[in-house]
């Protein structure tokens, strides 16, 4: 018995990606009509038939996928400028250098803070 022809096999024969073959066989508008016809013609000539079990599973997966959640996080500050916290001079003993500069100096001298 000859092994079943897969979408990947068909894609390799035509010289396109397996995604292109999948979309073309489902008449997806993202694939140009010319490429769709080429893929469908090659599938007919090669005797490709979709596996109904795999087709049903993939259709189910495509419908239950949720879109990524995109949230916006607000940041409220009392500093007079947007990045005022970066330039803030925090007095620590006699030092009035910005916290980031103090942290860099501490790291370079081997101190942890």
- What is the name of the CATH architecture of the largest domain? Orthogonal Bundle
CATH class of the largest domain: Mainly Alpha
End-to-end distance: 73 Å
Helix content range of the residues, please? 40-55%
What would you report as the Rg, rounded to the nearest angstrom? 30 Å
CATH fold node name of the largest domain:
434 Repressor (Amino-terminal Domain)
Uncertain segments of ≥5 residues (pLDDT<50)? Answer: none
Q: Average pLDDT value?
A: 82
Main sheet summary = none
- How would you classify the helix and strand content by structural class? mainly alpha
CATH superfamily of the largest domain: lambda repressor-like DNA-binding domains
- For the record, the count of structural domains works out to 2
Shape: elongated
**Total number of beta strands:** 0
- From the structure provided, what is the oligomeric state, counting identical versus distinct chains? single chain
Helices and strands, in order, run as HHHHHH
Number of helices: 6
Task: Give a summary of the structure in a few sentences.
This protein is mainly alpha-helical.
């Amino acid at each position: 018995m000859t092994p079943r022809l897969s979408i990947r096999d068909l894609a390799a024969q035509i010289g396109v990606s397996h995604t292109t073959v999948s979309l073309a066989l489902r008449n997806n508008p993202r694939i140009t009509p010319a490429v769709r016809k080429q893929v469908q013609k090659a599938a007919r000539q090669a005797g490709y038939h979709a596996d109904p079990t795999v087709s049903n599973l993939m259709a189910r997966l495509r419908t239950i996928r949720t879109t990524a959640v995109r949230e916006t996080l607000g940041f409220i500050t009392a500093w007079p400028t947007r990045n005022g916290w970066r330039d803030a001079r925090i007095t620590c003993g006699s030092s009035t250098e910005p916290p980031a500069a103090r942290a860099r100096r501490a790291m370079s001298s081997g101190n942890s803070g």
